[in-house]
Fold this protein.
Amino acid sequence: MSTSRERDGICRAFSTHRFEEVFVDLADDVRWILPGQAVIEGSKAVIQACRGTRDELAETTTSWLRVVSAAGEDVVAVDVVGRYDDKDGVTAVSSCDIYEFDGRKIARITSYAVEVDPDDIGSAPAAH
């Protein structure tokens, strides 16, 4: 059984796009739920989605304005605000990822995300 501190570190890595560090911790039948967008089922599909995100962000400078987590016995929640700078400008996303463990492996991830103003994370982004 992994400790809550280990689980916290695993989840923080995933939430801050250090996906490769977490692949070994995904259950084969993991479900990644993105409410209102998609449900990604199975570790192979989750890994493919993560690699797609990594590739999309290859030319982007990412900084983390906030990373806060809370860990329970089998659940970890990570609240992050990421700032993304690329050739098209700056965006920021506030997200909360909830990780549910089954033994040592992540069985379910639920991710909520909303774009925010990069200069005032409590506000909506300016109209484009």
Q: What stands out?
A: The chain has one domain: 4-116. The two ends are 48 Å apart (CA to CA).
